[in-house]
Structures are given as C-alpha cells and as structure tokens.
Write a structure and sequence with these properties.
alpha/beta
Amino acid sequence: TGKSLQKIRKFDSTQHIEFPTELKIHHHQYVPLPMKAHLVVMGVSGCGKSTFGKRIADTIEREWIEGDDQHFPESIEKMKHGISLGDKDRFPWLDRLVKKMDQSKKPVVLACSALKRSYRDHLRTAKGTVFFLHLQIPQNILLKRLQNRKDHFFSPSLLDDQLLLMEELKAKELGYTVNSESELEKWLSVQFEQKKDGHLPK
C-alpha cells in the first residue's frame, strides 16, 4: 500500500491514473487529494456537498463550482414537483459541469451528486485528473436536513430515489469515502497541512 500511495502522489497531472487491482481506494485507508486534481464532492442531497465543498475550496484556494447552479430550468421544475431526473436530464447537465471544469485556469472543487459510476466516468472526461470525495451520511440525518432546508428546489420526497441510485466508489476509482463529519474534518485538515507544505499547488 505504501508504494501504491507513492504512485498517487507522483502522478502526471495531465493523465488519468490506472490503479492496481489490489488497491482499495475507499474506507480501508486514507487517500490524499493528488496535486492539481479536480475535486468532486459527491453524495445524495443533504449530505453537505455545498457546505463542506465551499470550505474545502476556500481552504486550498481553488475555484468553487456549485453543481446545482448548472441545472436546466426544466430539471429544476421536475425536482420541485418531486419528479426524479433520468439520464436524459443528467448527462446534458454533466456536460455543462465538464465544460466549467475545462474552462477553469486552475483545479476546481465541484459539488455534484455523481450518483452513478457512469456519471462519474462522464465527469472524468474533463481535462486532467478528477478525484471524488463521497460524503456518506445516515438516512435519518439526511431527511432531517432536507426537511429543514429552505429556499432549495430539491423535494425531500426524492431522497429515497437518490439513495437507490447511489453507487458507491469502486476500488479502481480515484476517491475517498467519509462516513462522519469528524472524519471529513480530519481529511480536510490534512489537505490544509499539505497545502502549507507546498504539496497542493494552486
């Protein structure tokens, strides 16, 4: 595993990374954010993508992209009325996000549900390398957050659909899953220390 982590830290940022099959990316070991990689903060609605994503962007001084802001009006209307989005709705939205990533002059932090592997693969078509940080929060907390949230178009009735669609990160995907706010805080503090030491250039 030590050699595997060295491979992550020494990668060519212009290339996508292929990991050895034995490398377990999520849950089993800490995975750092590689240099110059885009960071996608992912998970179902209510998991804290925007709250923590913005904090991460501020901490490591990267451009912040709120994925919800890029939804088409028709999709917003569907979600307001409790209608789930399908692939025909999501892939044009993902195209927008990839374009925003490619237009940035430096790596970005993007909030995007990225529920399915196929959606994440689409985001990986962006220039450079894409790292996924999955925020995995218990369902009862998610529902409480959504019910208390104001001025947002997402209907809490759609949470069950998102949880059914959610595909966890696989072993060969570059990313990390956190299961609690304390674990996320620990991951974020390490990124901040790496930035101070010069390991996370702007």
